[in-house]
Please model this.
Amino acid sequence: MVSSVNSSLTVGSTGNGHLRHQLQRLRSGWGYGDDAQSSTNYPLVRITNTSTGDVCFGRSYSFSTMGVWTKGTTNAEFDIPSSCTTGASTLQVIVNGIASVGTAVTLS
Model:
């Protein structure tokens, strides 16, 4: 669940630091018997243009915590690729293939 993000974002921008999400605890590891314990890396930011259906993916980083099963929200920064289509869009955070509820944003 994305609990806070700016409603106006710029295509090609970096360091958008107002992403707060509650999926952090689902990201940090999976187990397979006693053979391996590894992280599933970082949550993706998916932005879908409302009118065209174009989808682009942003990178998230600089998490306020990397702990497993933390309570509350995790703050993170994210970049918006210059390949994203401008206009009304829906932003989601995806962790382990599970997408958050969409949040309305406008890309310029």
About this structure: The two ends are 24 Å apart (CA to CA). Residues 8 and 70 are 29 Å apart (CA to CA). The longest strand covers residues 87-95. The mean pLDDT is 79.
